[in-house]
Write a structure and sequence with these properties.
Helix 1 (13-23) crosses helix 4 (67-87). The chain has helices at residues 13-23, 26-33, 37-51, 67-87, 107-124, 139-145, 189-194, 208-213, 230-233, 248-251, 283-297, and strands spanning 56-59, 62-65, 100-105, 129-134, 150-153, 162-169, 171-176, 196-200, 219-224, 240-244, 257-261, 269-275. It folds into three domains: 13-87, Winged helix-like DNA-binding domain superfamily/Winged helix DNA-binding domain (Arc Repressor Mutant, subunit A); 100-162 and 272-297, Periplasmic binding protein-like II (D-Maltodextrin-Binding Protein, domain 2); 171-267, Periplasmic binding protein-like II (D-Maltodextrin-Binding Protein, domain 2, 3-Layer(aba) Sandwich). Strands 4-3-5-12-6 form a five-stranded mixed sheet, sandwiched between helices. It is 39% helix and 22% strand. The longest helix is centred in the N-terminal third of the chain and has 21 residues, at 67-87. It has 298 residues and is an alpha/beta fold. The N and C termini lie far apart (50 Å).
Length: 298
């Protein structure tokens, strides 16, 4: 086997390189891989010599990546899992593992099962860490580059990713207790489209499932990415909020908010875990998916 570029390169620098390119901060990168700040600074200098590139450039708002570093960041997302599989143990033991698990999801998913998942990981893999970040328009890019491990979404992911059904829910509508519709048991499509709405912006400024199936354009008065605070916005208004039923007992004060059945045209909600296919066989990430599925189902 011919070796040209890697001969003489210290592969132990790769975790430091990945941390630096993701964190864009020497101290945070050092903490992430368990090095002192001086040791990480020395690693950065060695990496600059290896690649003959500055990699991180200091500016007014912290470090930015050079074009070479941006390319390396994407390449490392593929290379590092392969190296872990090559040199790592065949069996995965969560109790002794020291993994960093990263999930992108909405505040709904965190409210629905985030606490249960955190407890499970803490109990069964105490040496590992768990980080939640808010689902946004760049989440699929983060999934591709390996900066997140798992994405929780109200639809299957694009074809280049692997998707697995986690659980289902249904839509309900919420209005203020003094709303003209508050005493009804359900909302008709006509009334649904007659009143202004609070929209939960999950992806690219829309609730795609509602927009595709309701059969008309809603009058959006307020948009927010947060489910948790939306019911409180209803108080004293004529607004309608459409959100998953599983959240109703958590966030809706029934003395001030009325919960109604949504128009029957709105479909069932299906939530999926989505990941990059390169992680299909990784035992650590497979364990994460299994624990996530069990926590969501409970």
């Amino acid at each position: 086997m011919q070796q040209t570029h890697i001969a003489g390169v210290d592969l132990n620098l790769l975790p430091a390189l990945a941390a630096l390119l993701e964190e864009r901060h020497v101290s945070r990168a050092a903490t992430r891989v368990g090095l002192s700040q001086p040791a990480m600074s020395r690693a950065l200098q060695r990496l600059r010599r290896v690649f003959d590139d500055a990699l991180l450039v200091s500016g007014h708002n912290g470090y930015t990546l050079t074009p070479r570093a941006e390319r390396l960041r994407g390449q490392l997302a593929v290379v590092l899992p392969s190296l872990d599989a090559l040199f790592g143990a065949k069996d995965f033991d969560p109790m002794t593992a020291q993994e960093s698990y990263r999930l992108a999801l909405s505040d709904y998913s965190v409210a629905a099962f985030g606490a249960a998942l955190a407890r499970e990981i803490r109990a069964n893999s105490p040496g590992s860490t768990l980080a939640y970040q808010l689902l946004d328009d760049e989440s699929f890019d983060h999934l591709s580059t390996g900066t997140i491990d798992l994405l929780i979404l109200g639809r299957p992911g694009p074809a280049q990713f692997t998707s697995q059904l986690l659980f289902t829910d249904r839509f309900v509508c919420a209005v203020a207790a003094d709303h003209k519709l508050a005493r009804r048991r359900h909302i008709s499509v006509q009334d649904y489209l007659r009143y202004p709405h609070i929209r939960i912006d999950i992806e690219r400024g829309a609730q795609h499932l509602i927009e595709r199936t309701i059969g008309g354009a809603r009058n959006i008065a307020i948009s927010t990415p947060f489910h948790a605070f939306a019911p409180e916005m209803l108080i004293g208004t004529d607004l309608i909020l459409t959100f998953p039923a599983r959240l109703a007992p958590k966030f809706a004060d029934t003395s001030e908010i009325s919960i109604l059945k949504a128009p029957p045209q709105l479909p069932e909600l299906s939530f999926y875990s989505v990941w990059h296919p390169r992680l299909d066989s990784d035992p650590s990430r497979r364990w994460l998916r299994e624990v996530t599925r069990a926590s969501a189902a409970s």
